[in-house]
Specification:
With about 200 residues, the protein is mainly α. The protein folds into three domains: about 50 residues, Wheat Germ Agglutinin (Isolectin 2), domain 1, CATH 3.30.60; about 50 residues; about 80 residues, no CATH class. The protein is about 65% helix and about 10% strand. It is built from ten helices and six strands; from the N terminus they run H-E-E-E-E-H-H-H-H-H-E-H-H-H-E-H. The protein has a two-stranded antiparallel sheet. It has a two-stranded antiparallel ribbon with strand order 3-4. A two-stranded antiparallel sheet has the order 5-6. The longest helix is centred in the middle third of the chain and has 23 residues. The radius of gyration is 31 Å and the shape is elongated. The N and C termini lie far apart (about 100 Å). Bound molecules: zinc ion (ZN) (2 copies). One zinc ion (ZN) binds next to strand 4 and helix 2.
């Protein structure tokens, strides 16, 4: 009561008398303030975290794994609300994000291109592995740089309509389908044999 009149409160832990804003709000406590001052509470929380860090991390991880869909949904909704409430702020954010991306690309162009190439080659390797051949299945040519993924049923144009001309998209599609299906639809050919097959198909 006396504290209410003076608008200060003594922290029982460190003994310092502080104005109300030196304490966290806590509606469960009489007077609506936390027992200990903010500094002491922070120290206590930190100590608790340090002493139980493994347990806390494990609990968080388990919670996230079990509730991943709810968490994602909530995050999306929160993001939507935030954008709606602060359209100008987020317009600026987005602009900055794009600018940063551009600058990063400009400054790291060679590294990015190199990494993309590496990633693409890796995927290509996995696709050949999945299709079961690292050489042309018609002529046996085995320079991996001159090999390609052939659409067995000549339906490449339909594929490209769906996923575009990006070869990485095609690799991903193949890597995500069951092996038996992949091997029914795609095969490894060299560019020559692929071209000859195309000519034969077109000219009947
Ligand atoms: Zn204190
Ligand atoms: Zn060939």
């Amino acid at each position: 009561m006396e504290e209410n009149q003076n608008h200060t409160k003594k922290c029982p832990k460190c003994g310092v008398v502080l104005p109300y804003k030196g304490f966290y709000k806590d509606r469960t406590k009489i007077g609506g303030l936390g027992t200990y001052c903010i500094t002491c509470t922070k120290k206590r929380n930190k100590k608790h975290y340090r002493e139980n860090v493994e347990k806390i991390k494990k609990q968080r991880k388990e919670y996230c794994e079990k509730n991943i869909d709810t968490i994602r949904l909530k995050a999306r909704e929160a993001q939507k609300r935030a954008v709606k409430d602060n359209p100008d702020f987020y317009k600026d954010c987005y602009k900055k994000y794009i600018e940063n991306k551009r600058t990063y690309y400009k400054n790291n162009k060679e590294k990015i291109i190199e990494n993309n190439k590496k990633r693409k080659n890796k995927l290509r390797f996995f696709v050949f592995e999945k299709l079961g051949s690292f050489k042309c299945i018609k002529c046996g040519f085995d320079n991996i740089n001159a090999l390609c993924i052939d659409h067995i049923n000549n339906d490449g144009s339909e594929d490209r309509k769906k996923i575009g001309f990006d070869s990485i998209a095609l690799y991903r599609k193949i890597l995500n389908m069951p092996q038996s299906e992949a091997r029914n639809l795609y095969q490894v050919l060299c560019r020559n044999c692929n071209w000859l097959k195309y000519i034969e198909w077109v000219t009947g």
